[in-house]
Amino acid sequence: MSFRLKKISKLIKEEISLIFLHKIQDSSIGLVTVTKVDVSPDLRNAKIYLSVFPNNKRDSTLTKVKELHGFFRTELAARMTSDFVNTDFATGETLLIDKPLHWSSFKVVHKLRQIIGVKKIGHAGTLDPLASGLLIICTGKKTKQISTFQDLQKIYTGTITLGGITASMDSEMEVTDIKPFEQITEEEIYAAKKYFEGEIEQTPPMYSAVNYGGKKLYELARKGKTVVRSSRTITVYNFLITKIDLPKIDFEITCSKGTYIRVLAHDLGEKLGCGAYLSSLRRTAIGDFSVSDALTVEEFSEKYGQRALHLAGSAA
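and the corresponding structure tokens:
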């Protein structure tokens, strides 16, 4: 059984159990446990296995369940209606997904492709595996809008750690060149961050997906190579420090397309003279799209399973 069918079977099992618990009040029916559900590949039929206690009520319970077949179908369809009932992922839809920590953006796309069964799907802006937060996912014809979403400004929250640097400029790699940070004052931090506001030049890190001579920079970096990279003009619209608890500095940054928050953290550490790296990052908004309106991959999978059930019930 595919992951999708297993998920749908689980949902039916849970909902049928709740219907028995809350909707069926009949003395002829014993205590019913839904032990298993098998859903057909076309989602048109489901075989439901029940356990009845006490045993002497088994026959009367099964008879009553057969009489209530129509009621169960109607009730189940109503319960399984979801936000995705009228969506058409093959033609084109836009999804807001809250990417989990340690997942690559590619893994999210791959997982959603498995769930909804469409080939044409992509995201509008990479998030590193060590970052969480908002990914805009486009399917079908909506993939033509990806560049439009990529051009929107982004909002990130996270933490910068003072006192050392890493080759990747985040917490993925070992901290080196450890330096004291206790002498750094809040006034110095606020003064230093002003150098990274507005329109500035930024050089992409070696550990990035930027192309160089037909290869990704990170591929060269993993071989111990360093190459000269051209700087890019970016805009930091707002660099707000929300908390200072040395060596940690919490922030919220609103910035343009192409901004590497890792590089901002590293450069801030250089400005302060103690080194720094990005220790956590979360993207909370892309343009007017907010992560508060996004679904986790697990939530999307569940809702899509509910959609499939609703459509199957409508077709039957």
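(Above: one complete record from the training split.) The longest strand covers residues 232-245.
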